[in-house]
Inverse folding.
């Protein structure tokens, strides 16, 4: 067994909202990961008030039934992606946390590549974030989503001290104490929650490192580029004002 897999107990946190059409992708990603990761792990899938049959499909799937002692499904009322992640993070028992999207645009096996790049020693004061703008990333995207994402990140870099080029990729790797610290006090439950988390971490002088990954856009995104883009900009402004003047470093 690789040394790093012996030393890391991992919690994978996956938010779900109306994912009935992507359940197979989700469980294929988990099953592939289970075949390759030989150390301790758990997966926490948070069904965030789905209006379709996501919950039933999750609980009936053979991969879930095969790993029922490792995969936990939490049903809750809809809060938004940030709220669903918060629920999962606060329930996590591993000493490291990987958040990722249900569509498996980046599969959890990407983490194995990351830890190889880190020479088996992820830093305990660093949050590692997947970056679709990293020169070593391999990305496929759809339509104008890339342009919208680049515009959003330009706004983030302009309004906040965050100078990374992709704050919004859902694939992020945390030491659990850092994840629980920032998610426990999360006030932004929508798509822009990443900005609040990373802004507070930056104020606390936590290192934030962008990492390369394979990322494949999946049809069926729930993001409306125009409407959600406006909401995100509004949220960023709110986060900046509130965090700048009220956040106290702990």
């Amino acid at each position: 067994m690789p040394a790093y897999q012996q030393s890391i107990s991992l919690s994978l946190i996956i938010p779900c909202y109306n994912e009935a059409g992507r359940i197979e992708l989700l469980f294929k990603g988990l099953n592939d990961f289970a075949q390759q990761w030989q150390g301790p792990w758990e997966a926490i899938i948070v069904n965030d008030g789905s209006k379709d049959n996501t919950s039933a499909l999750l609980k009936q799937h053979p991969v879930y039934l095969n790993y029922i002692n490792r995969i936990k499904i939490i049903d809750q009322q809809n809060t938004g992606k940030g709220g669903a992640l918060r629920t999962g993070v606060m329930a996590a028992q591993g000493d490291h946390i990987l958040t990722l999207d249900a569509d498996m645009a980046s599969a959890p096996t990407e983490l194995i590549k990351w830890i190889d790049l880190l020479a088996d020693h992820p830093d305990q004061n660093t949050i590692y974030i997947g970056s679709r703008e990293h020169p070593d990333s391999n990305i496929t995207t759809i339509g104008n989503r890339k342009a919208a994402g680049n515009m959003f990140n330009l706004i983030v870099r302009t309004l906040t001290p965050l100078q990374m080029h992709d704050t919004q990729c859902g694939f992020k790797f945390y030491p659990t104490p850092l994840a629980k610290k920032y998610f426990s006090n999360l006030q932004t439950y929508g798509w822009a929650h990443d900005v609040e988390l990373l802004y507070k971490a930056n104020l606390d002088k936590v290192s934030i490192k962008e990492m390369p990954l394979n990322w494949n856009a999946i049809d069926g995104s729930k993001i409306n580029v125009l409407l959600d883009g406006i909401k995100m900009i509004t949220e960023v402004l709110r986060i900046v004002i509130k965090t700048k003047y009220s956040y106290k470093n702990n």
Residues 15 and 134 are 24 Å apart (CA to CA). The chain has one domain: 3-246.
